[in-house]
Design brief:
heterodimer; A: 266 residues; mainly alpha; globular; B: 264 residues
């Protein structure tokens, strides 16, 4: 509880600090919103050329885009500051986090928090609401629970990916782009039904790095589509399980990374 | 001229030291190449011919584009110039006996040269192993493509130069930089080729400078522009190059008047 209070206080300070440079802050917020917007513009352009994609309608793909975009945006807002680990390691300032009586990860997430990243989830959230309005979903406690659970677990899955890929910085610098192909690449993948992918890539995102559980599988359940690879329908609810496993893995990897850390002493 | 050649050469050498980053970048471009290709393949399964493109054209377009992104510099990750304006080092840059814009143009071409073989070829080769791609069927297309890319690098450089000059007026250029480059990426066809755009939007996109950066050179590679049509494409790129470089020089002249060098 005390940890949470410290986190909230640090984040509050960060927001006030950013707000001192209002023009920069607003332009940056606009930039972040546009970043999400261009992805959607791509989806929109595609659906002016065709009416469906691998059997999915425009509104259904908009749902995938909105749901995965909200998860990615929230992960970006709360967890992506972990990327700054590599900068602190290079600058030699990571030691500061280790000598204070609060977890290093928590400090990193709080001190590098940037409110402009909110722009990342706002636009997909609007798209998600519109898509759900357009689609003929049978709303009952189960479907509502599925959407809410999907947002929470999807955010946790993206967050875990950020922590795991950022941990690489403790072994080697210069790998930021690899991390990008998992995070941004993952987001690009989940914007579309995985049915469009080649079989090898489709198997990877279903069974190996189960990104399908973020938006695609919940979509299958909501829109009553056939499950891929003849999986049982209950697998549509696998998001929370994947999130817990990803979270545990991230915890282990981060722990190893901290243990591996040797200060440069400079 | 000799000076600018050396700037380009040393910039290319400096880039070459970051091997890990290069490898990581190749992975990213390749992954995105596959994702976008599969999406477009699904589109072309619905409609086999869109605006003169077939599925093979679309896959080729995607991987050539992924290879060109860093060459042309359309991610806008390059902010050294803006950083030097912010830190005040620009005062030194401006007092040196060379053309300020020319110096940064030389650096951009040095990077472009390095990225051509380090980041340009690998994603295309890997993509070609898995998916069907189309190589130019006539030999003249290769040099025609190279000319198109050289002009594209110039247009993108001139655009970035304008964006980074905003550092003279505002503290943090990351916002305008991101807005400017995202606009460029979208209208250059890096997310979806322009031929898939609805007609009115395609016309808008082709009237803007951004098509010169990616879409037009890649269309040359696909053999979509021949003869007089090709000359028109070059003319389009040259006009935008002239306009943007000129705008950069005008804005620079205004900006220089704002520089106050703090002594000591």
């Amino acid at each position: 509880m005390a940890d949470l209070a410290i986190y909230a206080r640090t984040v509050h300070t960060r927001i006030r600090a950013d707000w001192q440079y209002r023009v920069s802050f607003v332009l940056f917020l606009v930039g972040q919103t546009m970043l999400a917007g261009t992805d959607f513009a791509a989806v929109a352009v595609i659906f002016t050329a065709v009416h469906q994609l691998a059997g999915w309608s425009g509104a259904e793909v908009a749902f995938l885009y909105g749901l995965s975009g909200v998860c990615f945006g929230l992960g970006d807002l709360f967890i992506s500051p972990v990327e700054f680990a590599s900068r602190h390691i290079k600058a030699g300032t990571f030691d500061h986090f280790l000598v204070r009586p609060v977890g290093a990860l928590q400090q990193l997430l709080a001190t590098e928090f940037a409110a402009r990243r909110l722009g990342r989830s706002l636009q997909p959230f609007v798209v998600l609401l519109i898509a759900l309005h357009l689609l003929d979903v049978d709303w009952n406690p189960a479907t509502v629970a599925l959407v809410v659970l999907s947002v929470v677990s999807g955010t946790a899955i993206y967050g875990s990916i950020w922590v795991i890929t950022s941990s690489l910085a403790f072994w080697t610098v210069e790998t930021q782009e690899i991390a990008n192909s998992f995070t941004y690449g993952g987001n690009a993948l989940t914007n579309y039904p995985i049915d469009v992918l080649g079989n090898w890539l489709r198997r990877i995102v279903t069974f190996v790095v189960p990104l399908a559980s973020i938006a695609y599988l919940p979509g299958i359940w909501l829109f009553d589509k056939p499950m891929p690879y003849g999986l049982p329908r209950i697998v549509a609810w696998s998001g929370p399980l994947v999130a817990v496993l990803a979270g545990l893995l991230a915890r282990v990897v981060w722990g190893q990374a901290i243990r591996h850390y040797r200060s440069t002493g400079s | 001229m000799r000076l600018y050649w050396e700037v380009a050469r040393t910039t290319a050498r400096r880039m070459a030291t970051y091997r890990g980053a290069t490898l990581a970048g190749i992975v990213t471009n390749t992954v995105f190449g596959f994702i976008l290709s599969y999406v477009l393949l699904a589109v072309f399964r619905e409609r086999p011919n869109i605006g003169g493109f077939d599925a093979t054209d679309a896959v080729t377009f995607t991987f050539v584009t992924q290879g060109l992104l860093m060459v042309v510099g359309i991610f806008g990750t390059e902010r050294e110039m803006a950083d030097r304006i912010q830190s005040g080092e620009v005062a030194m840059d401006l007092s040196r006996p060379y053309d300020y814009q020319g110096w940064w143009a030389a650096a951009a071409y040095g990077k472009a040269f390095f990225y051509t073989w380090a980041r340009g070829l690998p994603p295309f080769l890997i993509g070609a192993l898995v998916l069907p791609v189309r190589l130019p069927d006539q030999a003249w297309i290769w040099p025609a493509f190279v000319v198109g890319v050289i002009l594209a690098v110039g247009v993108a450089f001139a655009w970035g130069f304008l964006l980074q000059l905003s550092a003279f007026w505002i503290l943090d250029v990351r916002g305008p930089n991101q807005i400017g480059w995202l606009t460029a990426q979208f209208f250059a066809g890096t997310f979806v080729p322009l031929v898939l755009f609805p007609d009115w939007l395609e016309r808008v996109a082709r009237a803007l400078p951004f098509a010169s950066m990616i879409e037009l050179p890649v269309e040359i590679f696909l053999g979509k522009h021949q003869g007089a049509d090709l000359a028109l494409v070059y003319a389009n790129q040259l006009v935008w190059l002239g306009v943007l470089v000129g705008a950069g020089r005008l804005l620079l002249a205004r900006a220089v008047r704002r520089v106050v060098v703090q002594g000591g």
